[in-house]
Amino acid sequence: MTENAGITPLIKAVEEADSAERLTIALWKLAQARSPEAIPTLIEALGFNNPGAAVAGVEGLIALGEPAVVPLLKQLDGFNYGARAWALRALAKIGDPRGLELLLDTAAHDFALSVRRAAASGLGNILWENMEPEERATAQEKVYQTLVEVLQDPEWVVRYAAVVGMQGLATAVLSHSPAWLEPLLNQLGDRAKSDEELVVRARAQLAYQQLQITTPA
Q1: pLDDT tens by residue, 82-94
Q2: Does the keyword Ligase apply (predicted)?
Q3: What's the pLDDT tens digit per position in 119-161?
Q4: 95-216 in CATH: which number?
Q5: Domain ranges for the chain
């Protein structure tokens, strides 16, 4: 059986689902197939008024990774806010540099804390090896500057995500130690002492300690 023949019944099951529960089940089965043929249907699910279906769509797109990025980005302008937020979550987990500008803007400016949180942590997931070398250093510094801004977010869950993003970014640049790496470590050290929420202080302390162990002297 060809891949197309195998995926067609799964797509049809999504299209013919007559309840929210059956739709969600059908989408999870489609997501588990990990077929590029499923991408349009998985993206469409992001706009359904059904969180379970949207989660299945997101997870399916994350599992597919890079092939899902361009279709997602092309659809963004046509999405309503809810679908756009789900798409952002998928792009944040995939980590493709083509989604970087969206993550930067969302982490700093989106009105929904859960979406800012996803974007901030996603900034630590970027697959920098997939970006042109001559663009990489400038983009990494831009991520650092954005995460410093996000560390001031009024919502602790977003600040927590910014700490996670900072650790991911720092880990990615350890080998060449840019000028802003030490200020980044200082930001984490300060946050470990000064944040009003214990869980953020603890996460910043963990990141600071782990990076100190691995940072070249």
Answers
A1: 899 999 999 999 9
A2: no
A3: 999 999 999 999 999 999 999 999 999 999 999 999 999 999 9
A4: 1.25.40
A5: 6-93, 95-216
